Amino acid sequence: SEENVHNITGTLKLFLRELDEPVLPYAFFDDILHILDGTDAENPPPDTLSSLCRVLSTLPEDNKRLLLRVLRFGALVDSHSCNNRMPRANVATVLGPNLARRPRRADGGIDDDPGQALADAPL
Q1: Which is nearest to 6 in space by CA: 88, 86, 89?
Q2: d(Cα 19, Cα 63) in Å, to the nearest integer?
Q3: Radius of gyration over alpha carbons of the chain, in Å?
Q4: Which pTM was predicted?
C-alpha cells in the first residue's frame, strides 16, 4: 500500500542517516559533487555519467553493494509511482541526502546542505 512504501522508505532513510559514515564516504563527497555540479539530472551528458561511474567504481565493496541495493529500491518505488506518489524526483529527494554528506564540524554542524545536488543526481 501507499502507506507501506512511505514507512519502508522512512526506515531506510533513518538507517542511512545513522551510519557512522555515509554510503558515499566522506572522501568521495567533493569529487562526486564536482562531477554533478550543473548537471541536468534528466539528461546528464555521457562524460558526466562516465566520470561518476569511474569514481563510484572505487568505492569499498560493502558501500557499492549497499548503494546498488538502495538504487534498486528507489527504482522499484519509482516504478509504482502512479500508486504511491513517489516518482524518481521524490525518491531522490528523500534518499539522496542520506547517501552522502560532509563530515560534521567540531561544533557538530555542517558547512552546507548537499541534499539538493545529490537529490538531483540521476538514479
Answers
A1: 86
A2: 11
A3: 14
A4: 0.77
